[in-house]
């Protein structure tokens, strides 16, 4: 009788083999894969189960005619309690949002050969496309491909971006920068500070653009679109399509953030939690894999990221007192984000490393 031996699993080799295809998760789907490779399997301790909860993240109207004091109070409440809120009437036309999602799709559905020209792990490139920035360090690979660019303070030249998404990426980023100035003014007031305080500190100095593409997954129960994590910038502006899958961890359960047509999801980043001395919360979130797809989203992080900077950030002095001493040591954005990037999405907040 012939004995069939199970092939030994060599994770390092399989990761390398997947990476060297330069085709990402989209390439696996295009090849007709019916069982997802083991490198994507989530460890048992990282449950993919969803919780049912009758709970809604606040939706805040930023339209003209809305009382600003009321908006500030709603943002303060959401930032302290949930770390997340959605905004409508934010000033970015719906047609721009829809075209941005189309741009993500156009790039990711280019001919495989054309896309491979952009595939790299060199984060100094003006346009970086790959699958899983932490592919070699994370407990499990995510069912997701991504491209990113630094859109401020030194954006790429137009010719350095793919034609498939170039114009809309530039236009959308310009709109997000404008919205960011407004949001940081409201957040400053929500902290009890002058409206210009966070702007003057440099919270709007940088903008990192990430376009995510989550192909349909044949075994979504075995993997995740994005493992649980917090965002390492000051603030994130997220555009998601109508498929859904984004969840936030609150009250010891995973809660859906359902898509709202024309809305943008806003969440507090680690650096804003640090400088607010824990007044505002950077909350864990994740994205479920889905049999539907592809799902598209755009995350814009207000942060100078790993760009060289000597600017020091610590808890804002005006927020401190004898009863509320600083909880974090001072750091630079570059140090913080480099630590977070190197660590990868391992389920542990980088903030713990900077606690006093």
From TrEMBL:
Protein name: Fe2OG dioxygenase domain-containing protein
Keyword Oxidoreductase: yes
GO molecular function, one term: L-ascorbic acid binding
SUPFAM superfamilies listed in its UniProt record: Clavaminate synthase-like (SSF51197)
BP term (GO), one: coumarin biosynthetic process
UniProt lineage: Eukaryota, Viridiplantae, Streptophyta, Embryophyta, Tracheophyta
Coiled-coil ranges (or none): none
InterPro entries, per the entry: DIOX_N, IPNS-like_FE2OG_OXY, IPNS-like_sf, Oxoglu/Fe-dep_dioxygenase_dom
Keywords: Iron, Metal-binding, Oxidoreductase, Vitamin C
Family: Belongs to the iron/ascorbate-dependent oxidoreductase family.
Residues of the Fe2OG dioxygenase domain: 203-305
């Amino acid at each position: 009788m012939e004995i069939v031996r199970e092939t030994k699993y060599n994770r390092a080799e399989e990761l390398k083999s997947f990476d060297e295809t330069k085709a990402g998760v989209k390439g696996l789907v295009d090849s007709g894969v019916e069982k997802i490779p083991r490198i994507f399997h989530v460890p048992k301790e990282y449950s993919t189960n969803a919780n049912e909860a009758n709970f809604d993240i606040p939706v805040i109207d930023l339209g003209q005619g809305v009382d600003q004091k009321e908006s500030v109070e709603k943002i303060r409440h959401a930032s302290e309690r949930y770390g997340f809120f959605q905004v409508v009437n934010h000033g970015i036309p719906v047609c721009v949002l829809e075209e941005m999602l189309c741009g993500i799709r156009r790039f990711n559905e280019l001919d495989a050969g054309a896309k491979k020209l952009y595939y790299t792990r060199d984060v100094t490139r003006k346009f970086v496309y790959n699958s899983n920035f932490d592919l070699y360090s994370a407990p499990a690979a995510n069912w997701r491909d991504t491209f990113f660019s630094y859109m401020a303070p030194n954006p790429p030249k137009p010719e350095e971006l793919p034609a498939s998404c170039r114009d809309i990426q530039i236009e959308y980023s310009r709109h997000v920068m404008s919205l960011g100035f407004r949001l940081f003014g409201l957040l400053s007031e929500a902290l009890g500070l002058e409206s210009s305080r966070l702007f003057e500190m440099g919270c709007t100095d940088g903008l990192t653009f990430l376009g995510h593409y989550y192909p349909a997954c044949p075994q979504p129960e075995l993997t995740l679109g994005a493992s649980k994590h917090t965002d390492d910038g000051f603030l994130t502006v997220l555009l998601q399509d109508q498929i859904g899958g984004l969840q936030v961890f609150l009250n010891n359960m995973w809660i859906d953030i359902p898509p709202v047509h024309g809305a943008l999801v806003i969440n507090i980043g680690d650096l804003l939690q640090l400088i607010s001395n824990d007044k505002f919360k950077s909350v864990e979130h994740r994205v479920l894999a889905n049999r539907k797809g592809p799902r598209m989203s755009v995350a814009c992080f207000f942060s100078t990221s790993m760009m060289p900077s000597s600017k020091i950030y610590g808890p804002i002095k005006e927020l401190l007192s004898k009863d509320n001493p600083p909880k974090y040591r001072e750091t630079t954005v570059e140090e913080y984000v480099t630590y977070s990037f190197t660590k990868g999405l391992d389920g542990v907040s980088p903030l713990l490393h900077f606690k006093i």
